[in-house]
Amino acid sequence: MSHPSYPPAPQNDAKSGVPQVPAAPYAYGGQFQGGAQPGYQPGPDSGPYGTPVGAPAKSFMTTWILALLLGSFGVDRFYLGKIGTGIAKLLTAGGFGIWSIVDLIITLTGNARDKQGRPLAGYPENKKKAWIITIVVWFAGLIVGIVSTVLSLTFVAAAVQGAGTDAPVLPSASQEAPAPSSGTASDDGSLTVTMSEGNTVKVSLLNSGYTTEIPGMSYMKPTKGGFLLLEVSWEATAGSSYASPSNFEAFDADGAKGEEIYVEEGLGGLPSGDVAAGEMQRGVIAFDIKNGPTTVVISDDFGDKAATFTLTPAN
Fold first, then answer.
1. Which of 83, 88, 251, 270 could form a disulfide with 283 if both were Cys (CB 3.0 to 4.6 A apart)?
2. Residue 151 contacts residue 141 (beta carbons within 8 Å)
3. How confident is the model over 126-145, as a mean pLDDT?
4. 21-35, 51-65, 139-153 — which one is most confidently predicted on average?
5. Which pLDDT score is estimated for 157?
6. What is the pTM (predicted TM-score) of this model?
7. What is the Cα–Cα distance from 210 to 228, expressed in whole angstroms?
8. How large is the angle between the packed helices 98-108 and 60-70, nearest 10 degrees?
9. d(C-alpha 154, C-alpha 151), whole Å
């Protein structure tokens, strides 16, 4: 049995005698006849997911830097096109830090992929450098954290200790206070001062000393030779009064006014505040002043001089 040949042999037209070539079958040699067929036909430049072949992959270096510095905000995942997990990472502060560390390690080990599942460009040649820098950053962060913790604990301990510290021990007295020169003197060397009508206080000098450094305040440097430290008590004997270091002034033998130095209450300074009848405040006041005979002035509630006493250098 004979088979027809392809293409079919030409035949003569019955009327004209001109050879005619029969029409080719629907498909010949794999070629479709009758125009383009419906449906999506990938072009020669298309790859999986319709992504153009040869489209640049996401950068490993960019992803790594974003994961290292901004991983808690999900910026690395936004960069890779993973918007949904990026938002989740942002809202959870990097999964409370754990997600950020996991993503960073995934990136450093070369397992990170972009949204299309493609590996990151530049990993082989940059992975060693990325690992070294990451370890250095982690180590530096650890050191800073330890130092910050130690400093914080030191400050807290100092604050707690300062809150429970009594008045500082004054240096060996180089000046002594005789009976006050004005005001109503008592047998114990104290004096009674009228602060306002009906309000009186008993002021006592408990200790004094002259030094070039105030205990606990070594950062203060005298400009007039040294610091005069006075430990005083302020007791309201009638009515209430306001106790404050500013109620005291000091003048040297030449009449020059000493500069008042504020001593914190935690270091034993005289507290400021209202003192009710029968109550007492006690603390240290300080002046930057020249060593020698010193006159101390106590002011009343109106700022006027109410009493004075004189410190004389001890022999």
1. 270
2. no
3. 91
4. 139-153
5. 74
6. 0.45
7. 5
8. 160
9. 5
Please count the other Cβ atoms lying within 10 Å of the Cβ belonging to residue 103. 24
Confidence of residue 180 (pLDDT cuts 50, 70, 90): very low
Give the C-alpha distances (Å, rounded to integers) separating 150 from 137, 145, 163, 259: 20, 9, 20, 36
Taking the C-alpha atoms of residue 302 and residue 193, their distance in angstroms, rounded to an integer, is 13
Angle at 77 between CA 71 and CA 83, to 5 degrees: 130
**Is pLDDT above 60 for 176?**
no
In one letter, which amino acid is 86?
G
pLDDT of amino acid 22: 55
Encoded tokens for 9: 């042999």
Residues in CB range of 173: below 8 A, 6 or more apart = 207, 208, 209, 314
- In angstroms, rounded to a whole number, what is the distance separating the alpha carbons of residues 212 and 224? 10
